[in-house]
Amino acid sequence: MSALGHVGAATTGTPANLEKPRKRWLPYLLLLPGGLWLILFFAVPSIQLFATSLYDPSGSLEEGYAMTWQFSNYVDAASEYLPHFMRSLGYAALTTAICLLLGYPLAYAIALKGGRWKNLLLICVIAPFFTSFLIRTLAWKVILSDNGWLVTTLNALHVPLPDGRLLATTPAVIAGLVYNFLPFMVLPLYASLEKLDPRLLEAAGDLYARPVARFTRVALPLSMPGVVAGTLLTFIPAAGDYINAQLLGTNRQYMIGNVIQSKFLKVGDYPSAAALSFTLMAAILVLVFVYVRRAGTDEVL
Q1: φ, ψ (nearest 5 deg) of residue 173
Q2: b/e map of 66-75 (b: 16 or more CB within 10 Å)?
Q3: How many Cα atoms occupy the beta-carbon half-sphere of 103 within 13 Å?
Q4: What is the pLDDT of residues 47-102, one digit of tens each?
Q5: Is 54 within 8 Å of 270 (Cβ atoms)?
Q6: E strand spans, 5-115
Q7: Residue pair 101/88 in contact by the 8 Å Cβ criterion
Q8: Does residue 67 sit in helix, strand or coil?
Q9: How far apart are CA 177 and CA 47, in angstroms?
Q10: What is the C-alpha separation between 92 and 81, in angstroms, rounded?
Q11: How far, in whole angstroms, is CA 133 from its chain's centroid?
Q12: Could you read off the pLDDT of 190-248 as tens digits, one per residue?
């Protein structure tokens, strides 16, 4: 140990060799509150949900459920509601793609062209969050109604509509999902693009790179962490949503979230509902893992 180390240890009254273990444990202590929160409100409920999915489906809330390790609940749920699973994943994927196409130019403009209006534009992006999710979706129900201004205008312009209407159709459900989850795409993209040094784009232009090449070779690769984070934050909640399909669609547009909600709150079939929930969670986890691995940006998680 150097003379300076001896002086420091003598001055503070703490041996220098005790400082290292404290520093080693400090990150774990900082993670402790969040870790306890996840254990209590995610890990424990997930274990209970898995246990519920193995109950005897012939039971009820009044008579109780017997633990029979009924793994057939998963087979029955997957075979019976496979169309709802596929519809949910398809709607979520389409919603994510549309949000990316709409959100990237918006985030790019705010981050690199916003100037002094940057904060105001960000407030406009998150302004829908000031209203509840349910009220925002009900507002879309009014906008897309058969007698609403949008349908009336499209009919006057002779724009073909499915069954002559917008409400209670697949486009209505997708529109509601895009509107409700667009901020989840814009904000991560903005956070990534805001760190982009504009001089890199200028240097690419000085090297005679066309605007498309500047975007594909410079802006897009540097903003990929934001793209991955935004797509995950949009796809995951959209796959489990049921409000938009319930209010803006019909049973032909129902997603797996609608089935789970009905079985939990209306039918009272807890084992099947738990099996569907756990299957959806596992499917999304696998898809996210594969997507992140293929994107090559594991560090964003």
Answers
A1: -65, -45
A2: eeeebeebbe
A3: 34
A4: 999 999 999 888 877 777 888 899 999 998 888 999 999 999 999 999 999 999 99
A5: no
A6: none
A7: no
A8: strand
A9: 30
A10: 17
A11: 14
A12: 999 998 888 888 888 878 888 888 888 888 899 999 999 999 999 999 999 999 999 99
According to DSSP, residue 165 is labeled: -
C-alpha dihedral (127, 133, 135, 140), degrees to nearest 10: 80
> 50 CB contacts (<8 Å, ≥6 apart)?
274, 278
Structure tokens at 154: 């499209």
- Check if the beta carbon of residue 238 is closer than 8 Å to that of residue 95: yes
Q: Can you read off the two tokens belonging to residue 73?
A: 């609940």
Element (H, E) at 182: helix 170-193
Query: What does the pLDDT read at residue 296?
Result: 63
Confirm if 55 and 260 have CB atoms less than 8 A apart. no
Angle 183-185-189 (CA atoms, 0-180°, nearest 5)?
115
Closest to 173 in 3D by CA, of 248, 278, 261, 87: 248
The three-state secondary structure class of 55 is: strand
